[in-house]
Amino acid sequence: MTVFQVGDVIRLKKPHPCGGYEWKILRIGADFRLECLTCGHTVMLPRSEVERRLKTVVSAGSTNERSKS
């Protein structure tokens, strides 16, 4: 199981309809809230789906972003 933090940027296997592959994690729990870094659209996905679609963690979130949530 991958450990995620708020503020992490992840790359998913399939692109968003806008063409973007990279997403910023805004919320973590049973569901994840992700923001597309290309168009800014936010989506809620179950943890199991995010883990299945994950390709790589592009960058780790800073501790400042983590303390805001």
Q: Quickly give the structural class.
A: alpha+beta
Total domain units: 1
The proportion of strand residues reads 35-45%
- Helix and strand string, N-terminal first? EEEEHEH
- Strand neighbour order, sheet with most strands: 4-3-2-1-5
Largest sheet: 5 strands, antiparallel
Spans of 5+ residues with little confidence (pLDDT < 50)?
A: none
User: What is the rounded distance between the termini?
Assistant: 22 Å
Rg, Cα atoms, Å = 11 Å
Envelope shape: globular
Number of helices: 2
Q: Mean pLDDT, rounded to whole units? A: 88
Helix content: 10-25%
Oligomeric state as shown? single chain
Number of strands: 5
Describe the structure.
With 69 residues, the protein is α+β, with helices and mostly antiparallel strands. It has one domain (9-60). Helix content is 19%, strand content 39%.
Topology:
Layout: E1 9-12, E2 22-27, E3 31-36, E4 42-46, H1 47-53, E5 54-59, H2 63-68
Antiparallel strand pairs: 1-2, 1-5, 2-3, 3-4
Question: Keywords, please?
Answer:
single chain, 69 residues, alpha+beta, five-stranded antiparallel beta sheet
Offer a concise description of the structure.
The protein is built from two helices and five strands. The chain is an alpha+beta fold.
